[in-house]
Write a structure and sequence with these properties.
Layout: H1 2-23, H2 31-53, H3 63-83, H4 90-101, H5 105-116, H6 118-145, H7 153-161, H8 164-178, H9 184-194, H10 197-208, H11 216-240, H12 245-255, H13 262-269, H14 274-298
Helix pairs in contact: 1-5, 1-10, 1-14, 2-6, 2-8, 2-9, 2-10, 3-4, 3-6, 3-11, 3-12, 4-6, 4-11, 4-13, 4-14, 5-6, 5-10, 5-12, 5-14, 6-7, 6-12, 11-12, 11-14, 13-14
């Protein structure tokens, strides 16, 4: 456990640096959006490609996208039962619904990468394959249903087709199945880009961290559903599928990850309650900073 903590400590210090930079007005919270965009468009595709292209493929990897689908649909069923009993503005309930279904797997990525290495990243990428499609199709349609305009199929398809991490995953799969050898120069470039993922994500998290307790009861319920409920469902799925070791840890941590930043993106686009979305995200980050390292350490 101590060895795992020493691997995680640098990640936590980078988060603290991001928060310090914001508090000293060296950077603003909005600057975190640029860091996440750099990670999304540059670092994550490179990391995903390298991890998947070098992954030892087997039919067993299909359990990860299956686990993502089962976890998300089960949480959605829970939401349908709960939301009928909630009293809040429609735009706030829309954020609750989407927030509980969007897992911030990019948050757990640095921790999994630090402790388990590329082996865990490839599995997380397979989990995200189904998760990404669900977020930009199914979950986004929920956000739209709580907004003020009709669903746009063209937008959903465009989001999926131009997503760099998904292209990194697809190209990595092609390289893996065709036994393609990445040219040394290109591989070095990709390795350098991939190395930016952990620091960029944690700096952005530190910049965004600003906990506010809006709608405390609804916020608490949303966090319990997304993180505790998701983790329990992930654990049940892992047990049913017979997963153990790093396989089980990836499913459990992804299923119980904090609320994803896409929640705020969807809230902004569909004119939902952006203040409640920001509150959910910040408090989730705070809890995740305590819970995720603990889970990572006890899982080793």
């Amino acid at each position: 456990m101590f060895e795992a903590f020493t691997k995680i400590l640098p990640i936590l210090l980078i988060f603290a640096l991001g928060y310090l930079l914001k508090k000293t007005n060296s950077l603003k919270a909005e600057d975190g959006g640029l860091l996440l965009k750099l990670c999304f468009y540059v670092g994550s595709p490179a990391l995903t490609y390298l991890s998947v292209s070098q992954l030892k493929m087997s039919p067993g990897l299909l359990v990860f996208p299956a686990a993502a689908v089962l976890t998300t649909l089960t949480l959605y069923g829970v939401d349908l039962l709960v939301v009928k009993r909630l009293s809040a503005p429609r735009e706030t309930l829309g954020v609750y619904m989407t927030g509980t279904l969007i897992a911030n797997t990019s948050f757990v990525l640095p921790f999994l990468l630090a402790v388990y290495g590329p082996e865990a990243v490839g599995r997380l990428a397979m989990y995200d394959l189904a998760g990404g499609f669900l977020i930009f199709a199914f979950v986004y349609s929920i956000a739209i249903s709580y907004g003020d305009r009709e669903p746009s199929t063209a937008f959903i398809l465009r989001k999926i087709l131009v997503s760099p991490p998904i292209w990194g995953l697809l190209l990595g799969l092609i390289a893996n199945f065709t036994h393609f050898t990445t040219p040394p120069v290109l591989e070095t470039v990709l390795q350098n880009l991939a190395a930016t993922v952990s620091p960029l994500v944690m700096l952005a998290m530190g910049l965004a961290f600003s906990p506010q307790l809006l709608y405390p009861r609804l916020l608490s319920l949303g966090l319990l559903t997304r993180m505790v409920g998701g983790m329990m469902i992930g654990l049940m799925v892992a047990v049913v599928m017979g997963l153990s070791g790093v396989d089980r840890m990836v499913v459990v941590m992804c299923a119980g990850a904090p609320i994803g930043f896409t929640t705020l993106t969807f809230a902004t686009m569909e004119k939902l309650d952006t203040k409640f979305a920001a509150s959910l995200l910040s408090v989730a980050i705070g809890i995740g900073l305590v819970l995720t390292p603990f889970l990572t350490m006890i899982g080793t």
